[in-house]
MATE family efflux transporter
Amino acid sequence: MPAPNASAAPNLTQGPILRALLTLAVPIVLANLLQTGYQLVDAYWVGRLGANAVAAVAVSFPISFLLVALGSGFSVAGSVLVARAFGARDLPTVNHVAAQSLVLTLSLSVLLAVGAYFASPLLLGLIGVGPDIFAEANQFQRVLFLGLPLNFGFLMFQALMRGVGQVRIPLYINLLALALNFLLDPLFIYGAGPVPGLGVAGAALATVSTQALSVVLGLGVMLRGTAGLRLRFRGFRPDTALMLRTFRLGAPSSVDLSARALGLSVMTTLAAGFGTTVLATYGIGSRLLALGIIPALGISLACSTLVAQNLGARRPDRARHTARYAIATSFVGLLLVGLLLFAAARPLVRFFLAGDEAVATDAVEFVRIAAASLCFTGVQQSVSGSLRGAGNTLGAMLLTIISTWVLQFPIAWYLSSHTALGFRGLWWSFVAANVLAAILALLWFLRGSWQQSDLLQPEADAQVGG
């Protein structure tokens, strides 16, 4: 088989910066939309089972997100290290880092999957899930937990492809997987012929099945070596030194994402305190808002890759200009998305929830309150992406912890418990936290010290075996 070469992926360290940013960001956004499509397709079919089923899925989502976050931080490290090496056109290091990143993240995912499966009832009890939805929530998330290694494997595949600037192949795989998920969801949820209906657990089984297909296709791409990197089986022999360095770089990103996920869990707990109706409202509304944030996440990921590649190519000025373009593009893009969500809130909510007028009305109000502040989320995400691309994952982690735990959660608790807003205080906390976090992130960026990180050069990170 031919060795991979740099021409297999676009050179993003030259030419117009905005074009390079959009070349990378648009397919990432589309792929993330398709991945979110798993949840939206599940919500569509599960919504036909009633508000209790919707609430069961809603309480499980933050827990699953937390577990994925614990491991996906290491995919951030793998992506940044691969991008830095690819920017320097050090292809042997690219391949070695890719293989070791997969070994690290898959090992961690197996440990998390086993522990989470047995701890599932305890986790639901900790967030105060009521007996009316406890059994369904437990069944749903246990199936998802068993699929964590598949989830992590595909997340790492996407991260490694992103590191070399190859983002179209993951997009195509996501498209195929989503189509299959849409077919499997009604089959596994409601049953047909010899296939029994599994209810909400069927939605989780459909997702895990399509994740398995995605991982098989992703490994095939990397082993063939036609997309900018090529894995060899001997490359999976553990390199302890490299994995420890990857762990140190990825750990802050894991804490970053976990802090965000824990924040969602706390918000879910606050919503659960107001009853199943408010909990279902939060479940529907937060998912629609998560859909709106996807463009900001895509631009942030693209910014990380471009900053890392340009620093690897020893072009720090271009890395700095890339960050500025990302911040401006994300703010304007999310402003437009927020306006669209505000205008289309009612039909979107009704599409994913049938027959419960109280939940639908409250969810529309929630989405409209929070949508206008999405543009500020875009600013924070782009600054965090710049920090990660420069190897300053600790700085990105601190921004998330401050925005989630110092700002949003205390504001949500105070407004919902100590003002006349009641449960609507939860909705207004999104606005306050998004604006304040954006101001903090922008001030951090304008200090100009975000590029001063200790990220090791790729050649120091790995000793490539012969």
